[in-house]
TrEMBL record, chains A, B:
Keywords: Hydrolase, Ligase. Belongs to the 2H phosphoesterase superfamily. YjcG family. PANTHER family: PHOSPHOESTERASE SAOUHSC_00951-RELATED, PHOSPHOESTERASE YJCG-RELATED. Its EC number is 3.1.-.-. It is an enzyme of class 3 (hydrolase). InterPro entries: 2H_phosphoesterase_YjcG-like, Cyclic_Pdiesterase, YjcG. The lineage of its organism: Bacteria, Bacillati, Bacillota, Bacilli, Bacillales. A motif (HXTX 2) lies at residues 115-118. A motif (HXTX 1) lies at residues 34-37. It holds the Pfam family 2_5_RNA_ligase2. This is Putative phosphoesterase SAMN05421743_10191.
Amino acid sequence: MKYGIAIFPPKKIQDVANSYRKRYDPHYALIPPHITLKDPFEAEDSEIKEMVPHLKEIAKEMQPFEIEINKVSSFTPITNTIYLKVEPTDIIMGLNEKLYGEHLPGEREHSFVPHITIAQKLSDDEYSDVYGTLRMKGFDLKETVDRFQLLYQLDNGSWTVYETFVLGEG
Amino acid sequence: MKYGIAIFPPKKIQDVANSYRKRYDPHYALIPPHITLKDPFEAEDSEIKEMVPHLKEIAKEMQPFEIEINKVSSFTPITNTIYLKVEPTDIIMGLNEKLYGEHLPGEREHSFVPHITIAQKLSDDEYSDVYGTLRMKGFDLKETVDRFQLLYQLDNGSWTVYETFVLGEG
């Protein structure tokens, strides 16, 4: 099965993200707004059972932390993806690092850019138009994150939560 | 915020449910296939923080249990909802009972019928057609459930998982 690890940011940020995703993100219906912490990886049930205690340990050793969003950015020219840029604090960068630890399944394929996708798979014209408008807009979102989620993918491409890991809890 | 409690059944059952939901359930994109254990209720953050330890206790005192689906059924004439009927074992009925305990927010509004909705808001003609076909079909799904989820609703009507409660765990 395919698994991934993500943060669902507090409702307020999800609602802002969805106001754009609804129009510009074809994955809108597949998963709530999220910060991907570990990209999709294949794993057997048994590997996940082994992984869960490691994830608990990682969560337990952390404390809730703030995320801050001030603007949108984009992955162009690689893809026409537009995202809410999550400020890359040491804490979130360190959490990502731990989730690619050697005891855990799933290999890193690119460097970590904390973000919440709000538009993707746009045509070039649509991309220029939407990005042109959004990059002028300031955002002022600051919220506390206190958990992350291990998810698995269904046959239709959507994601279901397998387990929640609460920061600072055993 | 509005909260609810549900079981996401194992992937195999979710994939079967989605094969119907995709065509017949307008809530297809709002939440993965689920067995509602506690209907949506309003609660403050503080009430949820108080509720979580109770839910942990309820989960801890249980063990993983089997669910069995042999056929579809319907809520007609109340609504044109068609669902996979989850056999109402003592275990799942007892779990529902505990989730309406007096220390927890949210009042019971109707008796508990364990089910996974696969079609709703159909026209009468569509309903007759779909139900006529599906009720002739046997299902033979038996899987183990080992967790339930506390979810909250976003402004667009979709649901995000707040926390997972694993049965038999502290």
